[in-house]
Amino acid sequence: MNKLSQVSIGIGAAGVAFFxxxxxxxxxxxxxxxxxxxxxxxxxxxxxxxxxxxxIDRLEEELSTTNHKLSAANQEVAHLTSSNSQMSSNxxxxxxxxxxxxxxxxxxxxxxxxxxxxxxxxxKTVSDLQKAIAGLNRKLEAAQxxxxxxxxxxxxxxxxxxxxxxxxxxxxxxxxxxxEIERIFAEHDEITAEALRIAHGLQAWxxxxxxxxxxxxxxxxEMAGAYNQNLDELSAxxxxxxxxxxxxxxxLTEKVARLQQQLEGDLIxxxxxxxGYSVEGKIANDIAxxxxxxxxxxxxxxxxxxxxxxxxxxxxxxxxxxxxxxILCDLNRYTGDLVKWLGIHSITSVKKHEISNLIIISLRxxxxxxxxxxxxxxxxxxKLATQMIREMSRKGTIRIMGATGDGKGIAARxxxxxxxxxxxxxxxLHDPQHGSAEDYWGIAKVSQSGDEIKQALRAISAQMVDRxxxxxxxxxxxxxxxEIDTQLNKLDKKQFLNLVSRIRHLGMKLILxxxxxxxxxxxxxxxxxxxxICLYQGSSALDAIKxxxxxxxxxxxLLKQYGQIAETIQAKNEWLDDAKKHYFGLCVxxxxxxxxxxLPIADQIEIDAECKLIGDKFSIPVNSSLFVNHKNHATQxxxxxxxxVSMAQNGNCQTITxxxxxxxxxxxxxxxxxxxxxxxxxxxxxTCKNHVGTKLSxxxxxxxxCSLCKRKLRKAEVIWQ
Length: 721
Known about the structure:
The protein is of the alpha/beta class. Among the domains are: 3-48; 279-364, Threonyl-tRNA Synthetase, Chain A, domain 2, CATH 3.30.980.40; 377-626, 3-Layer(aba) Sandwich (Rossmann fold); 685-720, no CATH class. It has helices at residues 3-24, 30-41, 50-204, 213-263, 279-295, 324-342, 371-377, 381-391, 408-422, 450-470, 490-503, 539-547, 555-572, 625-629, 633-636; strands spanning 299-306, 311-318, 346-352, 359-364, 397-401, 426-430, 477-481, 508-514, 533-537, 584-588, 595-598, 614-615, 646-649, 652-655, 672-674, 686-688, 697-698, 704-706, 711-712, 718-720. The longest helix has 155 residues, at 50-204. The model is unreliable at 1-11, 16-46 and 629-682 (pLDDT under 50).
């Protein structure tokens, strides 16, 4: 290739580049492009200058840049095309969803329309029923009026009927007697006439037939005997007819009595229930059937109930013409035969219902629960007491409830015996029945009468206010208030509940002993028990299961368990002295499942009367560290370290001692606890066992938080300095 060719090729390439650059720069008009193409296609010798070369290079760079942009634009167009396709697909799906929604709406509208039609029909039906009921009520009123008239007529007819029947019977008897006598007399006259005729004949022939004279007399004698026999038979016939008349009168009187019983709605024969294939219903019917067959007592089976404890109760109507006491007496004597005939375990009671005119028969098909199964229902009392004491950091009040003789005092004493072994709390006992037969404590008391307990409540309230102000919550105090229900009234209730809810944050605990809310004059409700840990003793547990909203979800199973436990415990206590009896109860800790427990025997509970933790006055220890650093609390607190706490009011200061809560006037809620001039030792402060000296913060749940451990500490991890 010569130089000229090389120059031509170079010029051609440059021309192409120039054309591309010219196009990219927006060369205008097809004429210029065609001219440039024509020029470039013609071989020529062009001498390129340095400036032209630079322009060509720039145009080549611009062409390369344009190609990149064109490629990016193509990619963008492809991406937009893909997006458009995806959007079209989404749009199609949206249209389909809208179509389905429209279809659903149409169906809903149709259903609503049909529902409205049904509603209109129902309204019309209810209107028709109301009209029919009104008509029936009018007919019922008319029938009741007719019944009253009929009763009045029956009463009048009954009063007159017997006399009329007896008079009619006597009249008919006299008529029949008179007619029969007349008939006999007529027959007698004929016989007499015939006898006379024969006698005259005999007399005429007497002389001729003297030997026949004896035969004549014998004949007359026989005729007289026949006559007397006819009279006896007539008398017997008359007596028989009289007896038949009297029997008919008695039968008619009985029918009248039955008619009167039916009109009065009384029961004259058994009535059985329709219970299908129910075994319990069959037993209820069989009892009524057997009583009717053997005792002749009509009973009407009104229904039955299978109770949660496995027993069955059946209700029976009875005839009011028979005294209910007589029926109960006969049924109670007959229960043994009924049990054998029915093949059941026992009939536990036969009694009249307290409200309605029904006889209630309680029976049990199966034997009661065994003692081994009963023990599995009980939570060990030691485990439960530990759990309760631990939960008192969350709920600072324990409520012990029970009727007299249900063992609430034994429960309180056992709980106290465990507390003094496990917790360094300063304990104050308040008992308004001090010195009575019910005084079973045998330990020191701060309050010994109702008035002193009322003052102690005010003192506890003052202590609460003082601790809120001072932020000093040690030592922990425990006040045991016996017979609390008799010391509060409805005006005190709100203030007392406020006290219960606030003291748990201030190192103060309460044990309240008394009856359940239904017999409390303070007006407590079952919902108020949510603020307390509750021990329901004996029969009080049954009231709690039926009425406490917290136990509603497990009401049926708890009722069944109560029946099993109560029956077994009652059988165990039948021949035991009070000091040896077994007592049970139900523990309800808010937020946890209810637990059954059995208390230990009363003689086995021991409380050290000399324990220093049990105060004989309202004063609290000065150095609280002695109460939290020593295990054996009964021997570690000397008397000289216990300072009296005074109640300051109106500038006066009065010391509360074991002799009673003496105060100049009423101790109101504004009373404060004043340490006076007593030398108060510096209270011990809690710190972390792993980071000694670290200041701990205390939460609402009374637990301490360590900032270095970054968590709440267990009791074993807290030490006092």
